Amino acid sequence: MLSRTADGLFWLARYMERAASVARLVQVGNRMSNMSLSLDNPGNEWRSTLIATGTEPGYLAKHGEVVPSLVLDYLVLDPENPSSIVSCIETARRNGRAVRTALTVDTWEALNETWQQTRALKADRLAADSLPGLMDWVVQRSLLFCGSYANTMLRNDGYLFTHLGTLLERADNTARILDVKYHVLLPDHEGVGGVLDYYQWQSILRAVSALRSYHWVYHDRLKPWLIAELLILRPEMPRSLVACLAHVVDLLEALAVRYGGQRGECHRLAGEIHARLRYGRVEDIFQFGLHEYVTQFIDDMLRLGQEISGFYLNVR
């Protein structure tokens, strides 16, 4: 496969997953903000959402102060924000058009219809009564895209690069959603374990569709260390860091076999990250610091993506 085709498929999948990631983070911020207001304890939920998406510097440069309505517009509709939902879908579609012949009809239609409907989005969809439905729609469209390529693409190197892009972005997203909680400062009189704290952790689980899974696995009330364990170390949880990295290792190995057995730093690094997750313990993570651990993981994902691009896609 030509490197430009592989690169197009890789980034097409990443940007479709990133659009859903931003939607999930907006859902977290919105739920936390609504709960804070209902308790008459407004917090910094929207700033935490900007930080988690990595868009705070760009937002502050444009708007100066955190205003919920402006944050929503910046994260969802603003074409000047390369990580806004609209920008992600636009970039995904541009990549998809460039590799149209490598996509199945179902995959292209899922992508193109999403793009067409996104172009018609208006600011009134960000109103309080419309926002949850819009974010659910973005997540559903991403799931449709994933389902279409997973069920219709040949299991060749095109599929491997597409799935690899999805999983790298998904692992990064799970880490960022976990990190939202760190940046939300509890009010002085609202201690850890209180109503607000409980609802914030519940919002984290809902954002990754894991609330029911948590109760299925642990049969217990929400506890921060168990939530972290589920989303980081439990291989049966499909969006957990360890589950995503296990698949990344397998995909890179399959690519190595297809390309004459050649392996590079990306293969070693993916194996190292997966090993740390596979043999990690949640007690050690909290002793190290959940925020520090998640930040390190996000940095590792950035480096791994760069190594994959350098080795297979001739992009740095």
Please tell me about this protein's structure:
α1 (3-38) packs antiparallel against α2, α6 (105-119) runs antiparallel to α7 (131-152) and α13 (265-278) packs antiparallel against α15 (290-313). The chain has helices at residues 3-38, 45-53, 56-63, 68-76, 85-98, 105-119, 131-152, 157-183, 195-207, 211-218, 224-232, 241-258, 265-278, 282-288, 290-313. It is built from 15 helices and no strands. The radius of gyration is 19 Å and the shape is globular.
Brief summary:
With 316 residues, this protein is an all-alpha fold. Helices cover 74% and strands 0% of the residues.
**Quick one: overall form?**
globular
> Averaging pLDDT over every residue, what do you get?
90
Give the amount of beta strand, in percent.
Answer: under 5%
What gyration radius follows from the Cα positions, in whole Å?
Answer: 19 Å
The count of helical stretches stands at 15
Specify the structural class.
Answer: mainly alpha
What are its keywords?
316 residues
Secondary-structure blueprint:
Layout: H1 3-38, H2 45-53, H3 56-63, H4 68-76, H5 85-98, H6 105-119, H7 131-152, H8 157-183, H9 195-207, H10 211-218, H11 224-232, H12 241-258, H13 265-278, H14 282-288, H15 290-313
